[in-house]
Amino acid sequence: MSKLTRSPAWEALAAHRKRIAATSLADLFVADLSRAGRFSIETGELMLDYSKHWVDAETMRLLAGLAAQAQLPGWIARMFAGDPLNNTEARAALHVALRSGDATFPERGDVMPAVRGALESMRRFVGEVHGGVLKGADGRAITDVVSIGIGGSDLGPRMLARAMRKFRKGGPKLHFVSNIDPADLEAALTGLTPNTTFFIVASKTFATAETLANAARARAWLEAVLGNSNGPSRHFAAITANAAGAEALGVPPERVFPMWDWVGGRYSVWSAVGLPVALAAGMNAFEELLEGARAMDAHFRNEPLERNMPVVLALLEIWYVNFFGAETRAVIPYSEDLRDLPAYLQQLEMESNGKRVDRDGNEVDYATAPVVWGASGTPSQHSFHQLLHQGTHLVPVDFIVIGRNGESSNAQEALVANALAQSAALAFGNPAPGAPHKVLPGNRPSSTVLLERLTPRALGALIALYEHKVFAEGVIWNLNSFDQWGVEHGKNLARTLLPRLLAGEDAAGLDASTRSLLARLRKRD
Ligand code: F6P
Q1: HEC states along 363-416?
Q2: How far does the centroid of ligand 1 lie from the alpha carbon of residue 176, in Å?
Q3: Which residues contact ligand 1 via a Cβ below 6 A?
Q4: Long-range CB pairs of 424-428, under 8 A, 24+ apart, other chains included
Q5: 240 Cα nearest atom in ligand 1
Q6: Helix or strand or coil: residue 198?
Q7: 44 alpha carbon to ligand 1 midpoint, in Å?
Q8: Helix (H, G, I), strand (E, B), or coil: what is residue 328?
Q9: DSSP character for 142?
Q10: Residues 327, 393: contact at Cβ < 8 Å?
Q11: 351 is catalytic
Q12: Is 491 designated active site?
């Protein structure tokens, strides 16, 4: 058994589980009339209602004991101090520096001059684009910007550019491309003109096959019209820690925005990787996004464990995953503007904590990150909510609800009504005597994260909330949340298979199934 599952805090929770499992959510609400208020946390523009969970005051005390046993406050301090928490790559995880308001940060090894420099370059570039100063090779104004990237270099900017589109100050139309399947770029370029289209290539390594393939295709598309001299280069910017790689594509050095090895891809939307967001919503809105995240950073550093929103979300996840066997969690934003949030959280949570060995390399004997999935409500109600209400799986849900959207129609109220109806039906069910097929058993847990409005500040806080939740879970599970060796292996394998598929190179050394599929696919012409 691992140290964790033998620990006093774990054993206390296992014993407590038996008691709480005999109590329903309905019982818990009857037993404590102030439950809704007591099991909620408010900070800045966010409110978390976690009253519809299988917890009472004792559960929360014991869960906080688990976090204390893992010395979570010390780990939080170490992250903010810039310690190399990513032990397999000997790197810090300093994404918090990207939104720090401190003149110097962290105390040892100040990175703020580089961070401020990058923000200034972003502001200049956004100003050029919005001011119509950015022109194509033939002097025509840029009408469309295509962002090329994948994983952390795509999901964050894509999600936030959509979420913040209402703050748009004009400027070119944005498009996102990530798949190595040429259909993705082709679809994005349909109807666009090379002379008025600009590409932003985001890749921390500038070595990711999908991104390099799409960047090369984009360049060829430009060259077909603009020729292959300097013209196409005027249509490119890059965001990378590998400036030489960007220059090899012909990106002018003054259009290369920096990234650093102390920022993980899935934590990088606060850096110049967020340039499409700044183009979509303006640089002031981007800075407000950073302020929102900064406020959540302060909350995470300073609030006691039981009143700490990211910590409470992490503890609830651990409660269900490790003590009730939950294998999945659904995220349902009741906002079409937030429809890409589940995909963003899939990478953040599953790439960070989808791990089977702990930070010391020992195989764990407890479950780690659940499968995260979801879609925007209300379409989700007509797709998978049937399973949530009457299926056989335990699926805790995060409902993300926006209070007001500033418009006078009743549309927002309709969304909110649906969200609240779903969480109430999950929690309290529907008795339907004599009609078993109509019975909703209820007692199905959910959190509601309420954003008063969909402002950049609220969004910044929301994303930082989940980042810190993931970190807190990683600390308790004793994982390195900042590497992704499983993904790296897949990339390398694809690299070795491609020549075998293209040129029929020797397939010896491959497993029999892959060899036979290769043989069949090679014969296809
Ligand atoms: O998916 C694996 C991964 O390494 C992610 O962590 C990263 O966000 C993505 O690839 C893209 O990497 P890069 O920004 O270097 O192209």
Answers
A1: ECCCCCCCEEEECCCCHHHHCCHHHHHHCCCCCCEEEEEEEECCCCCCHHHHHH
A2: 16
A3: 150-153, 203-205, 208, 211, 265-266, 351, 484, 487
A4: 425/389, 426/52, 426/388, 426/389, 426/397, 427/25, 427/26, 427/52, 428/25, 428/26
A5: 14
A6: strand
A7: 31
A8: strand
A9: P
A10: yes
A11: yes
A12: yes
Q: Which two tokens stand for residue 25?
A: 């959510």
Each residue's pLDDT expressed in tens, for the chain with a length of 525 residues: 899 999 999 999 999 999 999 999 999 999 999 999 999 999 999 999 999 999 999 999 999 999 999 999 999 999 999 999 999 999 999 999 999 999 999 988 999 999 999 999 999 999 999 998 999 999 999 999 999 999 999 999 999 999 999 887 788 999 999 999 999 999 999 999 999 999 999 999 999 999 999 999 999 999 999 998 889 999 999 999 999 999 999 999 999 999 999 999 999 999 999 999 999 999 999 999 999 999 999 999 999 999 999 999 999 999 999 999 999 999 999 999 999 999 999 999 999 999 999 999 999 999 999 999 999 999 999 999 999 999 999 999 999 999 988 776 788 899 999 999 999 999 999 999 999 999 999 999 999 999 999 999 999 999 999 999 999 999 999 999 999 999 988 888 888 888 888 877 776 788 999 888 888 888 665
Task: Pick the residue whose CA is nearest to atom 14 on ligand 1.
Answer: 203
Closest ligand 1 atom, residue 351 Cα: 6
What is the CA(352)–ligand 1 centre distance, in A? 12
Helix, strand or coil, per DSSP, at residue 1? coil
Q: Ligand 1 pocket test: which of 179, 484, 488, 495 has the largest number of ligand atoms within 8 Å of its C-beta?
A: 484
CB count within 10 Å of CB 350 equals: 20
